[in-house]
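Quick question about two entries, pasted in order.
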Amino acid sequence: MNVSTHLNGMDAAKAFFKEERLLMPVIPETLQPDIKELGAGVFGTEWAKGKPLYDIYPFVQETMRDPHAQFLVFGQAGHGVNSWAMHYYLVHGPIALFIQLPYGGVYMSREASVGAITGAWGLLKDLLKAVDEMEVNSEERLYIVESMLSGCRWAWGERGDVVPEGAWKTQQPTFYNALRSIVLGRVA
């Protein structure tokens, strides 16, 4: 559903999340003016227009290859009757974050989905605050993939280089361990 053709992107996103009775995820202030409604229930910067959200790994791969990538795309996307998820993909400064949580399928518990999304948005806020406060080499990026559908992992990598499979860490919970890495330093 298109929330409204006369609202700007941020207002349309707020209306969508309000209608879904979900908290709005954190949107970095510097990206807010660039947010557009990209499709039914999908919002973000122009970079992500026309790219299917449900397939998370092309986003991750493209981000690793592009040292200048910077974008945000978020919202609900999927296919069929039960393959639906809430997405939040942010590449901004030293972080590349890809969150994909089940939401909206006919066999999913709305209550459980809303709880998981609310928890993720809370951790997201803490993670972005920690990233803002950390000192990092401008060539490095922290990649975090938190997907209940495609797996969870995180790694530090050089911008423009694909992170080798063996460098990814998979300790659960991913958010917690990535935050711990920031607080304790890259050795964590």
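Here is the second entry:
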Amino acid sequence: MWMTKNEWLALLESGINRREINYMITEGKIGTSETIWLLVITISVNVFFAGPLIIIQHTGTAAWYTMLISACIAAIGFTITYMLLKQHPGKNIMEIYESVLGRFLGNVFSFCLIIVFLLSSATRLREFAEVQRIYIFAQTPTSHLITFFVIVLVLLSFLGLDTIARYSKLISYLIITAFIFIIIISSQLYQVHRLFPILGYGIDKLILLMHY
């Protein structure tokens, strides 16, 4: 619920500083449902990338639970990050690195984190543009698609995470309906026997492909 000007002033007089109030006004807040739908949509986009195809090619029938094992491993890293953020309230991950490891090592870790995100974003952007070009925009140069996506990403960055999260919740109902419809109409094509053998092409391939 929106607060009036007098209510904001009352909060200021009760001990909340002006910087915190300005942050709450300008940045906004997102609820649990918006956060969940934002994560679900972000994960769902992976079906457009080549990652699942690569996993199937290397692990065979074990691909379906390889993703689950990878998710469990990723959850460990997420838990560690969450615990760090909880122990250092009001700080971002780079400030936490500097606080825990010192200025020099903290900056090194922050720089490595930035490089990883940049390389991952560039790879994903190129891959997504190629997929769109193959399936939808066959006559459009890849460079034009990438430019268009970058412009959209810049605009979304200016709008803020709260706007993206609320839009994710809004469009999630359409996405769920579409997924359910696809599952229903393709149900006759299911071949349950292709889930076996459980180990696919061998446990060694599973371990090597786990990072996907």
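Reply: The chain has two domains: 1-30, 32-208. Residues 103-135 form the longest helix (33 residues). Hope that helps.
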